[in-house]
């Protein structure tokens, strides 16, 4: 015979009933003791009875009246105590049974929201992550649990939606160079007598598409690596890293104003360099022909900040947050995206910052352009570095 599961409702009912019986038994014992002592203290004074003759002269069937009175009082007290104990135990048994039944009902009512949470969790799948518990009632622990569960479902829905969008966009971006390559090859094969010039043009187009494909794959690998977390830590001066990036970057005819101060951090040198490259590349690509870029690096209050401010077309403030999502590009309010852009630059910046335990903020300048700031924990001399966990990329704050 299989026993029923020892559910939480059954355990709570047993706990309620056991506590009630224990407290009731203690109450009966205290009442019995107090009543017994009260009877003893309130016993009436024995009346003075006539004395009997001495035993040699007393009849054998004649007992001492004083002894008989004491025995009668003792029997009456014992009967009263026995009756009190019997009635108290009977009342305790009846009330305990009622308490167990009420405890079972109350436990079931109190655990009903948990059953709703369990039922919702069982119904959930990737197709209905928009379902919520939406538990009403007072603001207690179960209400807080349900609200936390709803918030977790919201984050999961957003993560799955971002993943689906990422896969769709990545598939499209990866398919585009292949389509260009195939079209170039088809055009060359359609010509029965291709010339050296046409074959050279085909090779140029295929090489350009291949380079675009390689850059996209490299960006995807960098994004995946940064979101996985930092595995190799070194002492890095972020100012020196930015200076090296500035030397190797083609800033066209833009006016670049560097304001770099020593900023020691602990992190992956390659990822931190990629962070600086992507910020500077974003500022160069989306700028005016005669625009400017200001780069600031400094350490203060236990953190290192890298701030890149650039001129450029006006970006709607409500669009700033989307620029940090993969494959998101705002071409309407910004300069046209060149063939080099895949919409991954700022999303990689956000992922690298989060992987190093930092944050990022961004704001659209009213005059045009962006103001992006990345904050990282500063390296304290003489103190061992605390490796931050791999966190998901935080959203930009405008």
Automatic annotation (TrEMBL):
Alphabetical UniProt keywords: ATP-binding, Kinase, Membrane, Nucleotide-binding, Phosphoprotein, Transferase, Transmembrane, Transmembrane helix, Two-component regulatory system
Boundaries of every Histidine kinase domain copy: 169-380
Compartments reported by the entry: Cell membrane
Enzyme class: transferase
Residues of the HAMP domain: 108-161
PANTHER family named in the record: SENSOR HISTIDINE KINASE TRCS, SENSOR HISTIDINE KINASE YKOH
CDD domains: HAMP (cd06225), HATPase (cd00075), HisKA (cd00082)
Membrane-crossing segments per the record: 12-35, 89-107
EC numbers: 2.7.13.3
Reactions accelerated catalytically: ATP + protein L-histidine = ADP + protein N-phospho-L-histidine
PROSITE patterns associated with the record: HAMP, HIS_KIN
Main localization category: membrane
Highest taxon, organism lineage: Bacteria
SMART domains, per database record: HAMP, HATPase_c, HisKA
Gene Ontology MF annotations: ATP binding
SUPFAM superfamilies per UniProt: ATPase domain of HSP90 chaperone/DNA topoisomerase II/histidine kinase, HAMP domain-like, Homodimeric domain of signal transducing histidine kinase
Pfam family, one: HAMP
Identification of the protein by name: histidine kinase
